[in-house]
Amino acid sequence: MYHLKPQSQVIFITFPNGMPPVLKPTTTPVGTTMSSESSKKRKPKVIRSDGAPAEGKRNRSDTEQEGKYYSEEAEVDLRDPGRDYELYKYTCQELQRLMAEIQDLKSRGGKDVAIEIEERRIQSCVHFMTLKKLNRLAHIRLKKGRDQTHEAKQKVDAYHLQLQNLLYEVMHLQKEITKCLEFKSKHEEIDLVSLEEFYKEAPPDISKAEVTMGDPHQQTLARLDWELEQRKRLAEKYRECLSNKEKILKEIEVKKEYLSSLQPRLNSIMQASLPVQEYLFMPFDQAHKQYETARHLPPPLYVLFVQATAYGQACAHMKSSSQPPRQDKTLSVAIEGSVDEAKALFKPPEDSQDDESDSDAEEEQTTKRRRPTLGVQLDDKRKEMLKRHPLSVMLDLKCKDDSVLHLTFFYLMNLNIMTVKAKVTTATELITPISAGDLLSPDSVLSCLYPGDHGKKTPNPANQYQFDKVGILTLSDYVLELGHPYLWVQKLGGLHFPKEQPQQTVIADHSLSASHMETTMKLLKTRVQSRLALHKQFASLEHGIVPVTSDCQYLFPAKVVSRLVKWVTVAHEDYMELHFTKDIVDAGLAGDTNLYYMALIERGTAKLQAAVVLNPGYSSIPPIFQLCLNWKGEKTNSNDDNIRAMESEVNVCYKELCGPWPSHQLLTNQLQRLCVLLDVYLETESHDDSVEGPKEFPQEKMCLRLFRGPSRMKPFKYNHPQGFFSHR
Amino acid sequence: MKHQTSTLPFLSVFLEPPMGMHGQVLAAAKEAEVFQALQRLHMTIFSQSVSPCGKFLAAGNNYGQIAIFSLSAALSSEAKEESKKPVVTFQAHDGPVYSMVSTDRHLLSAGDGEVKAWLWAEMLKKGCKELWCRQPPYRTSLEVPEINALLLVPKENSLILAGGDCQLHTMDLETGTFTRVLRGHTDYIHCLALRERSPEVLSGGEDGAVRLWDLRTAKEVQTIEVYKHEECSRPHNGRWIGCLATDSDWMVCGGGPALTLWHLRSSTPTTVFPMRAPQKHVTFYQDLILSAGQGRCVNQWQLSGELKAQVPGSSPGLLSLSLNQQPAAPECKVLTAAGNSCRVDVFTNLGYRAFSLSF
């Protein structure tokens, strides 16, 4: 019935009308089998047309253009579904009929039946093909229907989205509108003058009544302008008032200065009137005045002043009771410095607060003025920290030979320590030997008055922290300028800095000062006397004379041949570098507070060098000698037992050389003893038999034996009245 | 402005107790400290002796003090600085302690003219007193002669003393009496040595002679005047014999003359040891000769005269060596050397100074 054009996957069926269809017995219902088969077969086709619609289209258009190709899709459009349905119904009926006929024939049986059945089968096959075709068409229609529905749905969705966007835009615009409606200007908060006042007072170039009367916006602007104008004027006025105030303050300042300068002038008038008072025999009560001054001393200096005065008077009393009264006192005390400065520092308590704030302000000013460099600022701070109290206490200690030790005590206010500067003056002019340079120098005369008290470090442990702040490494760099903060000075001022338990505030204590006063004064006197004695001795030592006093004469034989030829001072570093002083350095006896000398003793070709350590505590601590003999090679304590013995004779057995108390003769006696020892050493040196000629040093000393003991000691010990030498 | 003080109305402050010896006490302490440092610096240790138990070492110095060191404590693994200090120090003599020897119970020490005996067992306690004190019969002299050498003769339980009076005195340890006097030296005697096999004693002295004495006959049997032999004579150093040691056939001696090994029977010098500095102590040890003297080192010599080793000690000069060979304390087998310092150097083996004991 249908003329189907040959195409790739379509099954072509020819209608061989002449040939009877052969029906094979089938068990399964034909319809179901066919439909499942057809769906299976059709599937690739559908997919194919789906997968390549463009091709399909082209195919379709190709069909339309050329009419050559067969396209089922195109065919669908051409056919009426209603008629297809009719066709379907008809085909089904036909099939049913044919099936019934076949049934019939089969049940009847017979020979020719087979041919007829074949015929029927062919017919029914044709019907099946028709059904199949219809089925395909139905599928295509369904798909088409679906596609259309989908397309329509997408369109609807797009429209919906557009609608949503528009709605949102509308909402946003509405919000903006309400915001704009709600806007408030700042000027509304400003309290403006009332409208009537404005028109009455504002100049017309601001109010512009003709413009602003009608326009409320312009009116408000004009009113704001007016407000601004008025405020500017008020600010100007305020500034004027301030400068006025400044001026008045300055005036007050000037007047104050004038008043304060009045006081010194009055004082100088008083001073000038003093001679008049003296002339008129009505002197000021000196003591009272000093007492007055003492009131302005800081507590430690006050303690020192009181205690020293008391001690001085007690001494004077004791002396006057036992001896005829002397004109000069051993100890005199005086106060030096400007009392006014002290007063300025130390005001009565009711003024103190003002004072403090003033000084604070001053400090601020100074720091402001000197901000530019950090160094200057630090320097300033250091100066401030090391500031001395303007008042100082002078102590003059007279010794027996009319030499005076002048001590000036200062108080460092910010460090809470006391320092002292010392000076020695003698009754007669001293010829200063070169080697005695350091003996009486202010820097060293009082060094180690008490053991280890070299006065280079601050005794107040709290100071170290203060120093750290302003970058002071040690106080020793400032000691020459400030004076030495010896421990005994603190004690005299009643200041005690316990190492174990640092106290918050150190209070000047009278009893502490009193307990140290006598000992210290005695030590000071001993020190000055021993230094003066050394001073004198050095003068003659430099001339090669070892002065031996008559009361020490018994220590030495009458004839001493070795002579001192040189006595010079050496630097600590040079002493340390000498090759024969290592033992002393290693034993820690060569500290830098000691004084160092070099002596040269000669006899003939023998030269004995002696390096001397003079402890500042001389003469209670003996000088220490190290020897080096240049004679037949260099001999020191490391290669000659007898040189070692000589050293120990002067260093260890020094006590017999001390002479009468206070043993100021120790050093010279030791030197003289060295001369004697050198004599003994040289004279007892065993004579080398192989060398011809007489001995250089004939034995003149009387000796019991020349050598003794395993180390072959020489007889260094001198026995006084008999005058012979023996072994120790 | 200067105000002179004339009178002050108040004096009450001064009435507070003017104590304050504090400063003087401090000064005195400092003085004592310096004096002690100087004493230590000028100390010479003349003699050493090991206790019979081998665990203690006695050392005597020029101040007459004897210090007892505990070798076992100083050598133990947990030795501290304190264990290198003396256990006990006491004043034994007025003058230097020149020589010390130990018997199986006693320490005998000799110095200026006297020999004292101390019980080892009691010495470690504080406040020890000497057991006895003897003085050899000296011919009267202005000064008391010193005793430089002590020598024990175990066979006859006697002690030989020699020193300043140029004589050897033998003392019976049983009774404490001086039995013999051997005269011959013309100057004082430095050192003694015992020939173990025959009861003969060698002595060397300042006069430069080594004399051999027969104890049975109390006679001098041989004299070697060392300085007269050219090989070892050193006139610039003097002729004195400072040290002496013997192993019966051989004798080594030194001092002013060079350190020399002698064959005794033929009395000929066989080896002269090349050492410039005078030697103060010499001893045989196994097949070596140990010597010490001027200079820091302990010298070890082969018998052929080769210097085997020089081990530096801490003192600038050495006066005595002591080998602790007590079988009772094998762990304390050390060599100790002392001299011109306050330290006794301890050598745990011959080649190395381990540490120093110090006064």
From TrEMBL, chain A:
Q: Please, one GO biological process term? A: mRNA export from nucleus
Region ranges (Disordered): 21-70, 344-381
Pfam (any one): FmiP_Thoc5
List where Acidic residues composition bias occurs. 351-364
Q: Where is the composition biased (Polar residues)?
A: 25-37
Q: Which controlled-vocabulary keywords does the entry list?
A: Nucleus
Bias class Basic and acidic residues marks the residues at 55-70
Q: Name one GO cellular component term.
A: THO complex part of transcription export complex
Q: Which InterPro entries does its entry note?
A: THO_Thoc5 (IPR019163)
In alphabetical order, the GO MF annotations are:
mRNA binding
The protein's location, in the record's own words, is: Nucleus
Q: Which family does it belong to?
A: Belongs to the THOC5 family.
Protein name per Swiss-Prot or TrEMBL: THO complex subunit 5 homolog isoform X1
TrEMBL record, chain B:
Q: Which domain of life is it from?
A: Eukaryota
Record keywords: Apoptosis, Developmental protein, mRNA processing, mRNA splicing, mRNA transport, Nucleus, Phosphoprotein, Repeat, RNA-binding, Transport, WD repeat
Tell me where the WD repeats sit in this chain: 182-223
Where is this gene product found? Nucleus speckle
Q: GO biological process: what's one of them?
A: RNA splicing
Kindly give the Pfam families that the UniProt entry links to this protein: WD40
SUPFAM superfamilies per UniProt: WD40 repeat-like (SSF50978)
Alphabetized Gene3D superfamilies for the sequence? YVTN repeat-like/Quinoprotein amine dehydrogenase
Which InterPro entries does this chain map to? THOC6, WD40/YVTN_repeat-like_dom_sf, WD40_repeat_CS, WD40_repeat_dom_sf, WD40_rpt
Q: Identify the GO cellular component terms for this protein.
A: nuclear speck; THO complex; transcription export complex
Q: Which GO terms describe its molecular function?
A: RNA binding
The family annotation for this protein states: Belongs to the WD repeat THOC6 family.
Which purpose does this protein serve, as stated in its record?
Component of the THO subcomplex of the TREX complex which is thought to couple mRNA transcription, processing and nuclear export, and which specifically associates with spliced mRNA and not with unspliced pre-mRNA. Plays a key structural role in the oligomerization of the THO-DDX39B complex.
Subunit field text: Component of the THO subcomplex, which is composed of THOC1, THOC2, THOC3, THOC5, THOC6 and THOC7. The THO subcomplex interacts with DDX39B to form the THO-DDX39B complex which multimerizes into a 28-subunit tetrameric assembly. Component of the transcription/export (TREX) complex at least composed of ALYREF/THOC4, DDX39B, SARNP/CIP29, CHTOP and the THO subcomplex; in the complex interacts with THOC5; together with THOC5 and THOC7, plays a key structural role in the oligomerization of the THO-DDX39B complex. TREX seems to have a dynamic structure involving ATP-dependent remodeling.
User: What name goes with this protein?
Assistant: WD repeat-containing protein 58
Organism, by scientific name, is Sapajus apella (Brown-capped capuchin)
Q: Which gene encodes it?
A: THOC6
